[in-house]
Hints:
This protein is α+β, with helices and mostly antiparallel strands. The protein has one domain. Helices cover 17% and strands 43% of the residues. It contains 1 helix and 9 strands; from the N terminus they run αβββββββββ. The chain has one helix at 2-27; strands at residues 31-34, 44-49, 59-64, 70-75, 90-91, 97-101, 106-114, 121-133, 139-153. Strands 1, 2, 3, 4, 5, 6, 7, 8 and 9 form a 9-stranded antiparallel sheet that branches.
Amino acid sequence: MSLRLISLFSLILFSNISKAQDFKTFVANKQWILVTEKAEKSQLIRFVPYSKNLVTLNTMIWEFKPNGRLEYDYQSSEDVEACLGVDFLDLDVDACTWRPNPATNTILLTLKGGYASIDDFILKNEYEFQTFSDENQMEGFELVLKKKVFFRNLN
């Protein structure tokens, strides 16, 4: 009986440890399309793997670098005609960072950016990392807001 309990405890502990390490192995150095609009205000930030056929008008593509930095780019499909009034999230990549916390399976994300300029807001939030697979078997990930650490509207 106690061997089963130890085995169950080990399984739970191992799965939690592997989840915490998954962010780096699952996400880092890959391109991810940001699906969530107004990510800085959202309780959930969703990403899907970059694929040229998913690029529409002004698709924002993030890359989580292994050194804890973020890079991003915008791409638009050649089939889409540009229109006026599109919001562009612009980030100050020198001030944007991510840091995993394996003990809590969370990610501390710091973003500085905005829509009119890169000086509209600064945020630092703690997110829980979750992977998902949709109906088309596309694997992506979500950052679910766990705690707002800091937010400042610079306008």
